[in-house]
Each structure stands twice: as C-alpha cells, then as structure tokens.
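stuck on whats below:

***
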Amino acid sequence: RYTNGVCMAHDGKSLFFAESWACRVHRYWLEGPKAGTAECVIRDMPGYPDNINRASDGNYWMAWLGMRTPSFDLSLRHPDMRKRMTRRLPQDEWLFPNINTGGVVKFNEKGGIVETLGDLSGNAHPMVTSMREHKGYLFVGGILNNRIGRYKIAGADPNWTSPASYWGGKP
C-alpha cells in the first residue's frame, strides 16, 4: 500500500488520505466515537488518486495522476509479472500510457464525487499530482509537468486561501 495526499478535514476531527495504487480514499477519525478507525470513502476509482486539499465550499480537491489500465492493474497485483515487465518492456508501452492523462476530482465529506476536471488528451496537464485552490482559482501541477495550470472556479470565494483555512488568519 502507498498512502499519499493526507489532508485534515475542515472540522479538524478527521483526515483524508489517498491510497494511490489501490485507487481508494480513506477517512481516518481523530476524535469522536470513531476515533482511531479508518473507513474507505471512495473505492475503485478510474484513476490513481494523489494529493488532497481543502476547497472553499467545504469539499475537497484531489489530484489524479493517471487513468487505470488493465496491464498496470495486473502488474500491481502480481509483483513477479511487474518485475518481468520492468526488465523486458519499455515503460512507454505499459506505464506511461496511463499517466499521460490527469485531472482533479472534487469530493464531499462522505466521498461523493461533486465535480471532475480532466485532461484526457494529455496535451495540457498530464499526470496531475498537485492542486491548490486560491482566491477563486484552482492551480494544478505535476512532478513531470513543465507548466502550472490555472482554472477559474465558478462561484468560488475570491478571498479564500487554504493557508487561512488550515491555520487561521491571513497568509
């Protein structure tokens, strides 16, 4: 398992984290009757979840770094096959086709998908690994990208910043 994208919930009583290669998002409870337990809130995603951040409307943004493919899913379940693939096949034939697409998913506290934004062509923003909402815009980037995307969010609070949401006050 590979845990990624840890994000404190808006109320501070739980946190969300992505299990990238298992294509799931979990919520871990820090307080209340469920304290110390984790529950899967999004399972069997069509892509690989990465970083998670708060959204100004009380929801959460999550980057997905690529779409699932049967060959890559199979390689994740069978380590010996993955080792053979790594040694014998060029990565662009089995690994890179699925990470040439990327996007962002907005989800709510219960894991319901609210909105999706994607670059299925892989031309503008492939392999999105990070995103951050700031003053009415969503900024997206990726560890292999040579650019940062900026998307105007309809109806978003133009004064909201994530540092103020996490730590209070003005950044």
